[in-house]
Amino acid sequence: MSAPLDLLAVMAHPDDAEIFCGGSLIKSADAGQRTGVLDLTAGEMGSSGTRESRAAEAAAAAGIMGLAVRRCAGLPDAALCNDLHSRHVVAALIRALRPRVIVTHWTRGRHPDHRAAAELARDASFLSGLRNLPVKGKPHRPEKVVQALSFREDPVKPTFAVDITDQMDRKIEALSAYNTQFEGKSGIGEVFPAGGRPLFAQIRSVHAAYGSLIRRGYAEIFWTEETVEAETLGDLGVGTF
Question: pLDDT value at position 158?
Answer without folding.
Answer: 97
